[in-house]
Design goal:
Structural class: alpha+beta
Strand content: 15-25%
Helix content: 55-70%
Radius of gyration: 21 Å
Strand order of the largest sheet: 1-2-3-5-4
Distance between the termini: 49 Å
Number of strands: 5
Order of helices and strands: HHEEEHHEEH
Number of helices: 5
Length: about 180
């Protein structure tokens, strides 16, 4: 085998690996979308039940009660995509068992370090009002990359559905400021 043939085979192997990586990424995206679809279908079924009641007062009281009740046996996964490239997920959040896991999928874009003023200003301060509602809530930096950028946060003791929405908004705002 000549040098050029080896070089060509090497390039083809690199291309094959790149394609494999892309396929794996796409399967991950499909899994995320399927999870989100299941979650949305579940919510639609709950709404269908309310519509079946045919009583707006019952539906309104149900919504009001649900707003303040602790979230139990609920799993919720959400992904925030880049406003520049809608195919690029930046943050993934998964709520399960009163704990919200927040993965920063592109720490090189978000660029938040644990001891930075940005962490305090863009994450801790916006979450502080939740601490008033959720007295036991705590924010833990679970993982950092080699450069000290946060890659995973845990928000523990989060009990109310409306507060999950507020955390999601904090990260949407963060991405909006970073992009």
């Amino acid at each position: 085998m000549s040098f050029d043939e080896r070089k060509l085979i090497s390039k083809l192997m690199e291309m094959k690996q790149d394609l494999f990586d892309i396929v794996e990424k796409k399967y991950g995206e499909i899994e995320n979308l399927q999870e989100e679809i299941r979650h949305l279908e579940k919510r639609m079924k709950e709404i269908d039940k309310l519509i079946g009641i045919n009583n707006i007062v019952d539906a309104e009281s149900f919504l009001e009660r649900m707003k303040d009740e602790p979230v139990e046996n609920v799993e919720d996964t959400r992904t925030i995509f880049s406003p520049i490239d809608s195919n690029q997920p930046l943050v993934k959040m998964k709520y399960e068992g009163k704990q919200l896991e927040v993965w920063i999928l592109k720490p090189e874009i978000i660029r938040i370090k644990k001891e930075s003023s940005e962490f305090i200003e863009h994450i801790l301060q916006p979450l502080f009002p939740l601490k008033e509602k959720e007295k036991e809530m705590e924010v833990v930096v679970d993982k950092q990359n080699d450069l000290g950028m946060i890659t995973k946060l845990l928000i523990k003791n989060l009990y109310k559905a409306e507060n999950i929405d507020e955390v999601f908004k904090v990260f949407q705002d963060l991405i909006g400021q970073k992009m």
